[in-house]
């Protein structure tokens, strides 16, 4: 198959990639955005977004990402739906190989491959995934009408989704390994005021029990004691792991968790290679940050392209 040449290739169609794409389209850069599924990224796993500026009444995750996609489309962003299987990011020309068999090249690449939910790694988790073990409350919440379920984690995702799950479940038990939450204060206030939510503090899930579906979770308390909580569903919402499987990790500098290290202009250690959004090594993962980083990365990429000879 022929090699298709671009000036800029953006990998990933979440808030970072779509914003980079919007800026590239407006900058009249010959750019391509590659996405393996639907555009939207992890925001599609979120029922409701209450902190994206400009949406004073809040917005569903789906509508926000549909709007971001339409915005980039309005300026003619070229998109391709395919998976990147491998890439070589060293040298002046970066080469990407797609599962479609195509090869793409560009002097500049922006990596916006995002992150995915982390697993707890306890017995029963793999076996019962999709049978009561879930990583997405928006996707699976409606299956638990009038049932008793557990949520693991104490961050923004766990607490926001625990609140969302009270729309369906009879009782939601949040299991958290410390005695205070990491989630933002307004989210904590809502959770503490919600009668359907109760907390098991200073405890971790040590196993998930069930034959064909989840029947209970085993809990190990920090004082050494153990207990069993009968539930029909468990939502594991304990942070994210990088989507870096297709990245050349022998070329890119990453942190210990496998997230890409950049400078404040989103430049990686490789000239012409930029990263934005949740794949970056950073403390705060917010939609607004991802969008801002996408804009920064694209502007830095345009600056890089304009510095190239010819
Ligand atoms: P997070 O902020 O990293 O929180 C992860 C939570 O899971 C923490 O409470 C952590 O406990 C707990 N945890 C981690 N590993 C665990 C393990 N092995 N067993 C049990 N518990 C474990 O992750 P997140 O909540 O998924 O959020 C990811 C990013 O997205 C964050 O930057 C967050 O602010 C952002 N986010 C923002 C919003 C919003 O602004 N509305 C909504 C969702 C997510 P410790 O507290 O003890 O570390």
Compose a concise summary of this entry.
With 310 residues, this protein is α/β, with parallel strands linked by helices.
Bound molecules: NADP nicotinamide-adenine-dinucleotide phosphate
Number of strands: 21
CATH architecture of the largest domain, by name, is: 3-Layer(bba) Sandwich
Give the helix proportion (percent range): 10-25%
Q: What's the mean pLDDT score?
A: 96
Quickly name the level 1 CATH class of the largest domain: Alpha Beta
CATH topology of the largest domain, which one? FAD/NAD(P)-binding domain
**What is the string of helix and strand elements?**
EEHEEEHEEEEEEEHEHEHEEEEEEEH
Low-confidence stretches: none
How many domains comprise the coordinates?
Answer: 2
What fraction strand?
Answer: 25-35%
- Looking at this structure, what is the CATH superfamily of the largest domain? FAD/NAD(P)-binding domain
Judging from the principal axes of the Cα atoms, what is the shape?
Answer: elongated
Measured distance between first and last alpha carbons: 27 Å
Q: What is the spatial order of strands in the main beta sheet? A: 6-3-2-10-21
Structural class: alpha/beta
Q: Please report the number of helical segments.
A: 6
Described by strand count, sense and barrel closure, the largest sheet is: 5 strands, parallel
What is Rg? 21 Å
């Amino acid at each position: 198959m022929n090699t298709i040449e671009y000036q800029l290739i953006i990998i990933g169609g979440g808030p970072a990639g779509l914003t980079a794409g919007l800026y590239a389209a407006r900058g009249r850069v010959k750019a391509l955005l590659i996405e393996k599924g639907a555009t939207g990224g992890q925001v599609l796993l979120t029922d409701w977004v209450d902190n994206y500026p400009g949406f004073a009444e809040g917005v569903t995750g789906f509508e926000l990402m549909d709007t971001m996609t339409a915005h980039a489309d309005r300026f003619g962003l070229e998109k391709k739906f395919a998976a990147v299987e491998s890439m070589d990011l060293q040298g002046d020309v970066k080469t990407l190989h797609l599962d479609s068999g195509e090869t793409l090249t560009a002097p500049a690449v922006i990596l916006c491959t995002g992150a995915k939910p982390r697993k707890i790694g306890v017995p029963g988790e793999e076996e019962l995934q999709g049978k009561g073990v879930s990583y997405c409350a928006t996707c699976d919440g409606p299956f638990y009408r009038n049932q008793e379920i557990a949520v693991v984690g104490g961050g923004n995702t766990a607490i926001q989704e625990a609140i969302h799950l009270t729309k369906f479940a009879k009782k939601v038990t949040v299991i958290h390994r410390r005695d205070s939450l990491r989630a933002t204060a307004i989210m904590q206030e809502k959770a503490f005021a919600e009668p359907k939510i109760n907390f098991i503090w200073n405890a971790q899930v040590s196993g998930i029990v069930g034959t064909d579906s989840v029947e209970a979770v085993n809990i190990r308390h920090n004082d050494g004691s153990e207990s069993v909580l009968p539930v029909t569903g468990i939502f594991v919402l304990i942070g994210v792991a990088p989507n870096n499987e297709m990245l050349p990790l022998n070329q890119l500098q990453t942190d210990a968790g496998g997230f890409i290290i950049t400078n404040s202009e989103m430049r990686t250690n490789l000239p012409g290679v930029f990263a934005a959004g949740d794949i970056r090594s950073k403390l705060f993962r917010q939609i607004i940050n991802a969008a801002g980083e996408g804009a920064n990365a694209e502007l830095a990429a345009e600056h890089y392209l304009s510095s190239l000879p010819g």
